Amino acid sequence: MRIFLSLFMLLLLSSSLGCSKSSGKGASGANEAADLGLECNHDLKANTIIRKSWPYPADVRNLVWTGRYNKAEVRLKPSQITFVTATLTFREGDYLEVLGSEVHVVKPRRLIAKKDIYVTRKVTRQGIEKTDTYLVAKAGEPASFLFYNSEGYCMVNTDDGPGWTQCTLDDTFEGLSAEKPQACQQNWWVQIERSRVDKGWMIVNPTLTKRVSGPPDAAK
Known about the structure:
The protein has 220 residues and is of the alpha+beta class. It has one helix spanning 2-35, and strands at residues 48-51, 62-65, 69-75, 84-91, 95-96, 100-107, 109-112, 117-125, 128-137, 142-148, 153-157, 163-166, 185-193, 199-203, 209-212. A hairpin with a 5-residue loop joins β11 (153-157) and β12 (163-166).
């Protein structure tokens, strides 16, 4: 009987410890998400494409390869389901002139509005084109931030789809800044060309590249 009670107590203790460890793991995951500072702890999704746009700062358009030696596939169009047109080899220091750019927002960022946020849209009624203005969020309310275009406009998500609103990095949303100007998750597609044959689109990997305004030796 004593042996049975001892085994029962050991089993109960191990179960309690297991629960404690599991709870600690969950808390750690929540803290890691909070440490990102990008207000990303939500389930909102987006499938928004901003064509002919560069991530902030938009005037830093080109890339230098910082990885030692890597191969990368480029595709016919900025989509993972299109054909691979070439496999390019990059070495550290290679300069990549970006010919085209698209930002694909996958997960928006929930930010508190510092002021009332309005979106304007052109609509056609009875054959006449008009501009309607919609209130997206009042000051102090959350809004779904998608993209900042470096020219005084932010794209936000609404019930009727994405729309543009005038904004700056300082006075429109809590947490939006030059250090954190992006959505929670986005893919930056760039079009590059090595030759008439070796050209196409690829997603920028920030761990293998850095952004530059022009060729590294342009100032020499």
